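Write out this protein's structure.
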Amino acid sequence: MNEKSFLQQEAYNHIKENILSGKLEPDILYSETKLSSELGISRTPVREALQCLSQDGYISIVPSRGFKIRTLSERDMEQSIQVRCAIEGYCAFKVCNERTSRKAQRLIRQLDMLLQEMEDTQNADDGHESFIQADHDFHLALVAYAENDEFDQQFQRLLYLIHLTSKRALNVSGRVEETLHEHRDFLEALRQGDTSQAYNRIIKHLTMPINLESVKG
């Protein structure tokens, strides 16, 4: 890795961590120049990092002015969930059809471990961050099963919106427990190779945040 790409990655990681930790807040216009100064690196790798963060859905760039942290609109949430349903629904179908293969059995064991990690972190005092990360890893593993580069790239671009959606949903009382229950039911359907149940359960799970918004509305 050359110096330029190293600095770009460093800037990307730094800004991303500050977004996820809440140190950078929505509705504030941040300066690329000021950020470069704070990091002690030139503007070029910072600008390249910001372009990557924009492509990955973390920020919105305001030309010639700076950037803002992306917020979650109802449209963003619904569209990202629709894309996830298409991808993860297919992946569930594929796993069930290949349930007896070594690859599918390996995934099921991996999902079981990730579900245990979710259960272990459900009461962590970190604003659900550990739970959300384990949840993301569960769904990323399911998507990775298809070995489809387009699926992987699309899911990566949605990760921040998924993160925001998860945080909003988990603030609803009882939603953590319900999420665990939905994952258990889905995993059991995969184990049984029940294509219809697996598909229906993953779709119901993914669309739950939309239903929660409808109830609140």
